[in-house]
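Lecture 7 notes: from sequence to structure.
We start with the chain below.
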Amino acid sequence: MKRPWIIVLAPVLLAAHVLGAFQSSSVSTVHAQLGKPEGLYYKSWAIVIGIENYLVAPPIPGAITDARKVAEAFRQLGFDEVIEFYDKDASSRRLHQVFNDLLPRKVGRMDRLVMFYAGHTGSRQDADGQDRGYLVPFDAPVNNATKSVTVEQLKEFTRRSASKHILLILDVPIFGWEMTKPQGLTLEGRLSPESEAERRAVQVISAASQGEVSERPDNRSRFVHTLLTGLSGAADLDKNGWLMASELGTYLAQQVGAVSSGKQIPMSLRIEGDGDTVLIEGRQSALTFGAEPQTPAERQQQAKVQYERAFALLQEGKAIEEAVERLDRAIEYDPTYGDAYVLKSYVRLEVLPNLDEALRAGLLAAQYAPDNPDSFYMLGVIYEKRGKFRDAEATFQQALRVNNAYQDAYFALGTLYADRLNEPQKSVEAFRRYVELGGTHDRARAAVDQADRTPKP
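Predicted structure tokens for the same chain:
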């Protein structure tokens, strides 16, 4: 039996070690922000665009009312600058000026920028035959992209912007993004949103998928109605006080999809970076571990959450100290959590070496996870590193009593007998069993081949 968590962790752990509000100023905001803000962002910007009475396109009754509600929601969330463009203020020339000049100059690298759009959209095929969407300004026709704001232009704007987080919320179905698929929402992972908040992210939430429409019963956008509910806190799916853009996207897809009977399903995309925009910042105490569990069942569940988060951090090859802290917290919540001791013994042996701590964790792993052969395998490796070769032999053999098809234990015994205990025959026997189980290590194969070629007395 392979140790999957060790096999998955080892390579990455090894690598881990070996943007009247646009007034000009004498110093660009982008270049002035050279340090780290006291909070998550220096400044938060919301650009709200609502076009209801088009010059050459059909009207969208209620679009400005919806957009004003969104603008007020961002003010309630504490955004520093909420800048609104309605009808003629959202002309093609004005929008291109905003995206190509004003925003890139004014939004700083440690800022947050959210843009909301309610209006018409259109699509065209590019040279490769791919459908590309565009936003329709106040003075543009729906079926002509010449004066529109295309997906390509939006992508170029986000590339030019220095801001840490950009979120585009579009009350239209718009497509043609070159994107990286967002990570699935893991509620346990939201116990520690600070790592996502530190990394660059450009995200898009659109009101519907390709071929669908953003429905407006009674001249009210179903998407906007749900968006406002989500921004009030309902989209905080894990109830930890933090509302992330990924959570909002998931919430909108679930709620709008359900209300529309699957006819309208919002799409949530990450088109650059691997971070996550923070919309509501939770309590500092929720940043790391969340609310303290009270009952034994809650403590066991929280121990599992901390263990799995530690494993994920180790698997990603980052925040190793935090991973160890979370393992310790898992053990604090459940002192009999054997698998947490197994993982800790590995970390203290291979990642942040401390043989004494590794041994203590290994002994507790063997005590509390006696049905897990990894407990004894890791303890055997620790004993061997400490020079206790007979103890290592005994624990490797115990691992095989739990699982007699444990390849790595046979290989470990083969090298122990050959290199430490001077018992060549036992070494060959262990290597032979390892090869029979499908092991491919050159040393074991060579030892078995040589033994087979040696004449027997």
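Points to note: DSSP finds 18 helices and eleven strands in the chain. The CA atoms of residues 25 and 270 lie 32 Å apart.
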